[in-house]
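Quick entry between incubations.
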Amino acid sequence: MIKVGIVGGTGYTGVELLRLLAAHPQVKLQVITSRADAGTLVNQMFPNLRGFVDLPFTHPDEAHLEQCDLVFFATPNGIAMQQTRALLEAGVKVIDLAADFRLKDIASWEKWYGMTHACPDLVAEAVYGLPEMNRAQIKTARLVANPGCYPTAVQLGFLPLLEAGVIELGSLIADAKSGVSGAGRKAEISTLFAEAGDNFKAYGVSGHRHLPEIKQGLARAVSKEVGLTFVPHLTPLIRGIHATLYGKLTREVDLQAIFEARYVNEPFVDVLPAGSHPETRSVRGANHCRIAVHRPQGGDTVVVLSVIDNLVKGAAGQAVQNMNIMFGLPENTALNNVPLLP
Amino acid sequence: MIKVGIVGGTGYTGVELLRLLAAHPQVKLQVITSRADAGTLVNQMFPNLRGFVDLPFTHPDEAHLEQCDLVFFATPNGIAMQQTRALLEAGVKVIDLAADFRLKDIASWEKWYGMTHACPDLVAEAVYGLPEMNRAQIKTARLVANPGCYPTAVQLGFLPLLEAGVIELGSLIADAKSGVSGAGRKAEISTLFAEAGDNFKAYGVSGHRHLPEIKQGLARAVSKEVGLTFVPHLTPLIRGIHATLYGKLTREVDLQAIFEARYVNEPFVDVLPAGSHPETRSVRGANHCRIAVHRPQGGDTVVVLSVIDNLVKGAAGQAVQNMNIMFGLPENTALNNVPLLP
Amino acid sequence: MIKVGIVGGTGYTGVELLRLLAAHPQVKLQVITSRADAGTLVNQMFPNLRGFVDLPFTHPDEAHLEQCDLVFFATPNGIAMQQTRALLEAGVKVIDLAADFRLKDIASWEKWYGMTHACPDLVAEAVYGLPEMNRAQIKTARLVANPGCYPTAVQLGFLPLLEAGVIELGSLIADAKSGVSGAGRKAEISTLFAEAGDNFKAYGVSGHRHLPEIKQGLARAVSKEVGLTFVPHLTPLIRGIHATLYGKLTREVDLQAIFEARYVNEPFVDVLPAGSHPETRSVRGANHCRIAVHRPQGGDTVVVLSVIDNLVKGAAGQAVQNMNIMFGLPENTALNNVPLLP
Amino acid sequence: MIKVGIVGGTGYTGVELLRLLAAHPQVKLQVITSRADAGTLVNQMFPNLRGFVDLPFTHPDEAHLEQCDLVFFATPNGIAMQQTRALLEAGVKVIDLAADFRLKDIASWEKWYGMTHACPDLVAEAVYGLPEMNRAQIKTARLVANPGCYPTAVQLGFLPLLEAGVIELGSLIADAKSGVSGAGRKAEISTLFAEAGDNFKAYGVSGHRHLPEIKQGLARAVSKEVGLTFVPHLTPLIRGIHATLYGKLTREVDLQAIFEARYVNEPFVDVLPAGSHPETRSVRGANHCRIAVHRPQGGDTVVVLSVIDNLVKGAAGQAVQNMNIMFGLPENTALNNVPLLP
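Done. Structure below.
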């Protein structure tokens, strides 16, 4: 059994980790920390866990995380980088669901996240936890930077085209739409039901933290810089991301074949039949990414539609997938549930 | 392995049965029928099932249901009663998720459902499939009438009070609210997103088909008629029923203790701590009923709050629970998933 | 022109007042205060007001409210009672949309609202601003306590029955459902989209501040105490309240006739034809209350369905209606817009 | 008073026309036709109209539309073209809210709409009713083709850039998101609450009827063909369209100034301050289009955000605006209501 600790279990990625890990046959949930809610039963805050998780939240000072085999950070940005070194030195593996270890360029990270980084050397060591890109390295990693939600949907959609070298690299467009849980379980006016309900808007058009992360991943795939316009939108879903991706074809290709070949062995990337339109609800609660590729009117613009559940493949599910890989388990352990539709 | 057939797999109870049965280790999905969609892959209509269910819909005439061990009817009312006798005679067990076998009083059934009943003798044989009430009989039943969604939530909320004999029987009130999936996957204007979204209304106040079903169950519990006012409402949820129940206490009792004692051994009925308010999302996608009991201002009115997922404990999940009982399996087989929150 | 000031214009009742007053031909919006947002253009926070309201928020210290003819308080509870005396002494009329002047019983108010009241004498003077009950007194009032949202829907539904003396007074039940805007524009986790969306729950079953307000109003109508069980619920609507009311008939009556007679001259109470089910969206954005009365199965339980828009008839619209009455204007001035459906 | 008839008043554009016209001081609603619902009171189907519209639906054969000054067609495609000639010959002006007269290229229309056109000569005469483009011609038109909802949002967003000649014409991208009311009030499974709720998807990527309409309008603005990729999406809103538009700049320009200058005199197009993100709810129920223009990271991709209410500026409101222009009334008559937020 893998002894697992979770730091910061009161947010949506935290409760989602708990939902998935509660059903994991090789995991022993050791401790879940929360400074503010120490002593409260986890299942009092999240009654869906009644009968599945009986632990209370533990104060970080009493968590003894060094006794775990693996610690997940489901914390705000800037927390994991303070505690990771000690855990690694104690032989504990770490998966950070926040952004602390995602950007290799420290200066860029510090600019976008507005903090000084506490451990640039660990950033260098950290493996970017997108299994479809980095599976081999994840297998042997001590420290995994779990990707952001938008970056997961966008990179999985663009990768086949980039790797096949069939689109212009200078003018990629990612028009992405996210459900409101992506903003986290934080008391804020802008994500109130009466604000975000029955409403649709773009945000962060001038710049969003996931932009450098996506560009880093795409650049790595082609070993050169890419030009990307990224426009995120908030849509009245609880869960779900839909990325609509646009690129300019540079030559005639069988797009469907490229996508199918790229993902033929991937357990969690599902290339839909030609002509399909994936729906966010088709992955609700599950770790799948479903993708369709189109070439409208036979022109030179390729359109990729990519959907994930932002809390699963975009966060907690991908983290469990990474854990499975790191611990040599079948990759879909505890991730084989059928999406909830309707 | 239990060879299972599903008649009418294109509605919400059908796809929900498939979601649950796809994960059932003792079930072999043999056939799913649909007259209109014969030949279509099930997972083309319901892409959440991609990778889990590979069958096409089969035309009823070619379904060979008699080769199944168990057939679920997820059909409109009036279908199961036409086909059940032949199946039973072929040694196939039947669970009807529609209403054909729910009301023992044939005249009442014919009035509320507007049809002549095809097999009153089978109604007499059928066991009403509320395990918390009829577990022993379900165990040996050939034919189970799976309860309606409202009746499940309302009966589970009232039963402890009735069995304990602590409320007036003449003036029960059930104010129930249902998500829109309860109306089924039918092309109708009144359940369009632009009609039912951001809108709340009562319906059927003068009379609803679930009224006689609830009254029958409550009457059985106390061996006498009960007076019930039942007001259903449509609320902009996809899934979920919240029943708010009112009764007049006839003597001093420890309400919390009554509820806890009644359901202490029930795997799917969860009595919340005193003072709680169950949320529908706390059972989303799961077979649980969560219940809280209140006595506002210490008066003589008792208020029970009862929530279920109308497609799970209110339909497909309860059907699987009944199947597990009928076939001697652990009752929670394939029903042990954590509810999806948020 | 009536010179109008609004104290606390950054909440939902504030922006709704602005929406209505911007179209009022006899109103000059003089000043809108906000401590936190002084200097910000109102229409920057609420872009729906672009082209209609060009004022900035003014700091309370610079508001010169004493130069207004009328001041609306759209503030949290406990603010209006601090400032009302000075305004009244300066000859300014006051309408408080919060609860400071709603309960005549000071001890009860202090218990439910957890504060010491600053001006019990003004509570005695204040007129409860439900025009269908108190029109004559409102006409000459200096200080109006605008009713709560639930109390408006519930009282309008019960009044005809109480005044006609046809129901038992000891066991009234009000099962009420509110949209999320009723909780205000406050940064709180429980009303986030990802918490309140696709979810339904009761709250405050053990006691809610609107309970004593409703009981006070009903008691006044019959000149004796009434027994009421009040259960509020949160439903995933932005706007709207649906109250489902239950009472026990004491004699044979023509319920439809009683309701129609009671409200025949009321411009904002619409009694629907017998057998109707009012929808919350049928009053969205408008000052109407729509009511239907039922007697299921001809029994002795009467069921009243009452819907309002909690921000209009339940708050800002009723406040404008009160203003119109206080200033001798046609009661529907600026309140004659068609509800927005769908 | 303008005597107005509405053909096909049972859909969402019909009820929205009624909402707006009921408040129009120069309009006398003469007749509203419906074949299926003749005899039913309009306000029975749409209770928001109680107290505002007292007419019943009239059977088309008894409608005497030739006695109107103006007839609106709020019908499915293919109806208006059958009846328009007779009306025009009787001296009646016509505004078609469907697509019959939108495309000048008859062959294209017949391909996209799958019908033979009944009156190509009237197509030639018809004026495309986008006032911001064609105001002068609308003023004298007998027959106006009211634009589609997507085309309105997309054209208003692209026009300033095209007219200023600052973007490449070959690779425009319009990523558009629509609320569900855009699909009409038709009994269809795909727009049920339980299908379209909590779900997001693209549709019609291979081709949508609004594509040729948009291309026609944009081409007219620059007197040459444009290349456009148009991807519509369905988002769980009742009302609202958000178009996110992408183009490649061909030279340095002050984008904000271009947009402000283009629309400085337009009563219903609101260019937001630089850096803004318009929300669909900021135009809910109103005839405004709000637009913001961005140039992310100072690159050569321009991003335009354009929002409308699909039922108002995208349908009924624009139709009333066209009527006002045709009859010499102030353009904002009956269109000056404040959007409903929240």
